[in-house]
Sequence to fold (245 residues):
Amino acid sequence: MKLNSIVKFLNKELKIKNIKDISKNGLQVRASENVNKIGLSVDACMDAFKKAKKLNCDLIIVHHGLFWKKQKDVSNITKNRVKFLKKNKISLYTAHLPLDKHIKYGNNVEIFRLLNAKPKELFGGVGYFGYLEDARNLDSIVKELNKKLDTKCKVLKFGKSKIKKIAVVSGYGAPDVLEAIKKKVDLLITGETSHAYYDDSEEGRMNVIFAGHYKTETLGVKALSPLLKKKFGLKTVFIDSPTGL
Ligand SMILES: [Zn+2]
Fold:
């Protein structure tokens, strides 16, 4: 399959050009004209690239890419990564916020799906708030997330114990605790922990689950797999490079 066809399809499907982002989304490294196998990964790091090479991928699609606005590559790390991709003929495609926000394949919508809940409205820029089917205990939600995301949630239990209205912001959504308090949600689920928002959470009586930045953002790239298989009949593989954070 031609790389250009895949890029064109993804740009349209993920509305790459419509969403403002500090990430330079879309095709970031062109190193293969034809694609037979696609690697799906969270971060554009050397570990993922090496695994992609071993798995014979000629395209890798990531959530966190190599190029960001106002970026300075003072350490040459980015340069070395690009060199590796070019040498091994692996192209790189990035979808950052478009893959958080997407109503079909986004990280956040996927977390709602995981909890059998329905997103209602946008929240915190690219997240959503919505409702669980039935009110349930905070502890049972933590247990389910630990199991389904293969993670170990950190929890701030400052709100109600029965949860119905939830907000979900994958990755780093700790600052959105303020919006969660304002919108009277029962629980904010996000990824990365934050010392800075501990006191606000406590004083605003907000429950917060930190399920891990990496783990909450594996879902969007994984959700692209059936889509790419169906559209192009291509082989895809999830490349796991966990950070534990
Ligand atoms: Zn992220």
